[in-house]
Amino acid sequence: MQDLHGTQRDMGIDLHGKTVHIAWHEYRNVTYDCYLKKLKKITVITGHGVMSKEFPGWVSADPYATKCERQNPNTGAWVVHIKKNTLQPVKVERSLDLTGLYKKFNK
After folding, report:
1. How far lies 39's CA from each of 20, 28, 44, 95, in Å?
2. Whole-number Å distance between alpha carbons of 54 and 97
3. Is residue 106 pLDDT above 80, yes or no?
4. Which run of H or of E encompasses 26?
5. Tens digits of per-residue pLDDT, 16-61?
6. HSE toward the beta carbon, residue 56, CA cutoff 13 A
């Protein structure tokens, strides 16, 4: 979903009709992706079955999610809040002089 400026703020995934195992894997992949992209929330459609009952447990065990709330008035959908990405970019040295090692091992 995009805000008024065209910036992606959240996304959604429809797990309804999938097996619990496949749905769990897809959910975890999407929350990880949202975390890396620094998105704030995701809408997850589970339907009203077994998955809907298990879903709060998925969120509590997810290292990238903070909480979930039912999306009103649709009780078969959830809004999951994603943790803030605190990873710092890795600085890469521009050049590395390996001349000493080359001379040492190429005698």
Report:
1. 25, 14, 14, 34
2. 54
3. no
4. helix 20-36
5. 999 999 999 999 999 999 999 999 999 999 999 999 999 999 999 9
6. 4
- When the candidates are 3.10.20.90, 3.30.1370.110, 3.40.50.300, 3.20.20.150, the CATH number that belongs to 10-86 is 3.30.1370.110
Distance CA 6, CA 79 (A): 21
Domain coordinates in residue numbering, the chain: 10-86
Omega cis (within 30) before 89: no
What's the pLDDT score for residue 2? 39
